[in-house]
Amino acid sequence: MKLTRRQFTTGLAVAGAATTLSAPAIAQGKTKLKMILNWRYQGPQSWFFLAQDKGYFDQAGIEMVMDQGNGSGAAVGQVAGGAYDVGFGDVNALIRLAGTKPEEAPICVYQMYNKPPFTVGVLSSSDIKTAKDLEGRKLGGSANDGALKLFPAFAQVAGIDTDTIEILNFKSNLREQMLKTEQVEGVFGYVNTIRFSAKLSGMNPDEDIRFISYGDYGMDLYSNGMIIPKAMANDEPELVKGMIWAINQGVADTLKDLDGAIDSVYEREPLINKEIEKERLIATLQDEMNHPELATTGLGNVDPARFKAAIDIVVNANGLPRTPDASEIFSDAFLPAESERIYKLL
């Protein structure tokens, strides 16, 4: 369903005016934090930039430095390895790490993407129509792409024989061109990343691309959230609460003014196509962040039963040596009040 800006902002409105969100006490001094994003500067990073531009991080006592990322899976490893203090990364990569090296695993403290965006994009003109049709094909993607890292799990769930599949790794900025020129028969990615990057490359994604989506085959997974080291969660809880408050405020401001949100991205990357990035932002809000559970959990939280089932899917499909407890992967201890995180669907 394609939404106009008016329909979208009416149908997905933050409960209460943004100015009513309770702010943390003004901190004395600032703590510098380095954040790695999931991808290049695009529309769906706007809430981070608004939080910075409007002084919410400052109010929380944080000097936030944000770097472009190279995949949602990579962000988790960057935090686990100590290169970054905060990451906007894929919680499934976190589950895999906690299932093998629990002592290294960070923790998610604000779950933002609550619908599975993982997909394999193929040309509509191809004879690939189902997951089984991927057998015997040449597929490709960035080595750190979240969908590629989840492909073994997807293959098990969908009954795909991966021994017959060739996978080519290439830089993320080559993905849509590799598909368009048929150098590969399918590409891994998040559906809206592929959709709008394809549009920028001159393709019509609604006509030229078919999506083999993981969620259609029972992989009801969460995706990107705010990842931090467990030491930070244990030792600096007020700092973490302030950071999450600031980001949540940025989300509220994004919903109030989509054009202003895109302007905040443009200030960092003047080469973006503002119209397409606005479309990408709306599609991300609609397709990746609007699970019906929002009405009861609020943005940033998880449904316990669904989250446990998601952990089990990742563990079983990847053959992990241990099943992490949900408390090892996610904590709701740092979230603003639920009334400040409720986003209502039409």
Order of helices and strands: HEEHHEHEHEEEHHEHEHHEEHHHHHHHE
Strand content: 15-25%
Sheet with the most strands: spatial strand order: 3-2-4-11-5
Task: Please name the CATH architecture of the largest domain.
Answer: 3-Layer(aba) Sandwich
How many structurally independent domains?
Answer: 2
Round the Cα radius of gyration to an integer and report it: 19 Å
Arithmetic mean pLDDT: 91
Helix/strand structural class: alpha/beta
Globally, the shape reads globular
Q: CATH first level of the largest domain: which class?
A: Alpha Beta
For CATH, the homologous superfamily of the largest domain is named as Periplasmic binding protein-like II
Extended strand count: 12
The major pleated sheet works out as: 5 strands, mixed
Helices, by number, come to: 17
Under CATH, the topology of the largest domain can be stated as D-Maltodextrin-Binding Protein, domain 2
Helix content: 40-55%
- Which stretches are poorly predicted, pLDDT < 50 over at least 5 residues? 1-20
End-to-end CA span? 12 Å
